[in-house]
Write a structure and sequence with these properties.
With about 400 residues, the chain is mainly beta. It has a domain of about 120 residues: Glycosyl hydrolase domain, family 43 (Tachylectin-2, Chain A, 5 Propeller). Helices cover about 10% and strands about 35% of the residues. The protein contains five helices and 22 strands. The strands form six sheets. A four-stranded antiparallel β-sheet has the order 1-2-3-4, with no helix packed on it. The chain has a four-stranded antiparallel β-sheet with strand order 5-6-7-8, with no helix packed on it. It is globular, with a radius of gyration of 25 Å. It binds beta-D-galactopyranose.
Length: about 400
């Protein structure tokens, strides 16, 4: 048979040709988003689906159905970028490697009278979902504009949609007029006051701190609240965990059923222990909390605390990091611990590598939590994927 010319072939197949063309153009819009990342590379630039470095520092993650939502501080360039010029940024992901920018979830205000006016300090936002009111509830550390870190307040914002916009409700110092449940009558009624100590950091002063010196000082106005996280337990009860008492003592405070207020029940963890950057998870009925020491933006050694009840007693263990730079938490500071969906006992330690002189260039250090001898261990990995968890004996 004589070979057909190309021209004849095109005519013969033209209906198929146009069908193919139609199908392929139709498919283009349905094609899944291009995957930019296939692994975690701690400390490196991590781009979103627009190829822009993710801007969600001091963040936390909320899982809604099959999607992860990452909320964090939107930082800008330079030193000034450490204060809130934009607000809280939100990203979404289905696989944890690839993130889509969902925009500003909570915007700073242009109103100079607002607590969250542009230029305030708005740090470590965390979002939880309240099933009672079907609202997304955001808590964050708030410092009032122009007042350094002296305000030590918590801000609360709410939204009907996970990605926002969140409406700022109020800021406060928690638990005004409430004693921690673990403070003795003797400690509550002690007359020892800050004025009795011309010098801080002495042995007597430390003992007084341990015995609630700052709790008594701040009793009426509410307790200081700086670095923080939120935790929702299996029974739906939520807790605000924050560095209080001049960053000397962590507090764990129970929230009301709508997550918008405090029940007044709270405990002190490691009084005088100087912990901040709390991140918590629960495994087999045990609570694990990783914190940092207090050296500002500079990294230090992480600490590990465990308890069988959220109400304690909490026990401190050695630094969970091992290997090179373990005494600096691999040049980072904890912010959140994420249980991976669909995997058993798979927890990701999320931390920030701050860059205070160019805030926007802060990096993310995510590492898998491995269990050894019943305790979490963190080891540096240049690159890893979620498959790591399949080989761990967690
Ligand atoms: C860190 C804290 C950060 C930020 C910083 C400011 O200790 O964890 O969230 O507040 O201090 O110096």
């Amino acid at each position: 048979m004589k070979a057909k010319s190309i021209r004849t072939l095109l005519v013969d197949f033209s209906p198929f040709f146009f069908l193919l063309l139609f199908l392929s153009s139709g498919c283009q819009t349905q094609e899944p988003v291009k995957k930019y990342n296939h692994s975690f590379k701690p400390g490196e630039i991590w781009v979103d689906s627009d190829s822009v470095h993710i801007n969600a520092h001091g963040g936390g993650i909320l899982i809604v159905n099959d999607t992860y939502y990452w909320f964090g501080e939107h930082k800008t360039e330079g030193k000034r970028g450490n204060s809130a010029q934009v607000g809280v940024q939100c990203y979404s992901s289905k696989d944890l490697y690839n993130w889509k920018n969902e925009g500003v979830a909570l915007a700073v205000s242009e109103d100079p009278n607002s607590d969250i006016v542009k230029g305030c300090v708005l740090e470590r936002p965390k979002v939880i979902y309240n099933a009672v009111n079907q609202k997304f509830v955001m808590y964050f550390h708030l410092e009032l504009k122009g007042k350094g870190y002296s305000a030590a307040r918590v801000g609360i914002a709410v939204s009907d949609e996970v990605t926002g916009p969140y409406n700022f409700i109020r800021s406060l110092r928690p638990n005004a007029g409430q004693w921690p449940v673990d403070m003795t009558v003797e400690q509550r009624t002690s007359t020892v006051a800050l004025a009795d100590f011309p010098e801080w950091w002495t042995e007597e002063w430390m003992k007084a701190v341990h015995d609630g010196l700052f709790i008594r000082r701040d009793f009426e106005g509410g307790q200081m609240s700086r670095d923080m996280t939120l935790y929702v337990d299996d029974d739906g009860k939520a807790y605000h965990i924050f560095a209080s008492e001049e960053n000397l003592t962590l507090h764990i405070a129970e929230l009301t059923d709508d997550y918008l207020d405090y029940t007044g029940k709270y405990i002190r963890v490691a009084p005088g222990g100087h912990n901040e950057a709390p991140a918590i998870f629960k495994k087999d009925g045990v609570y694990y909390m990783i914190t940092s020491g207090c050296t500002g933006w500079a990294p230090n050694a992480a600490r590990l605390h465990t308890a069988e009840s959220i109400w304690g007693p909490w026990t401190e263990h050695p630094n969970p990091c091992v290997g090179d730079d373990s005494d600096l938490t691999f040049h980072s500071q904890s912010t959140y611990i994420l249980p991976v969906s669909g995997k058993n006992n798979a927890f990701i330690f999320m931390a920030d590598r701050w860059n205070p002189s160019n805030a926007i260039d802060g990096r993310y250090v995510w590492l898998p939590i491995q269990f050894e001898n019943g305790l979490p261990v963190l080891k540096w990995l240049d690159e890893w994927t979620l498959d790591v968890f399949d080989d761990l004996k967690n």
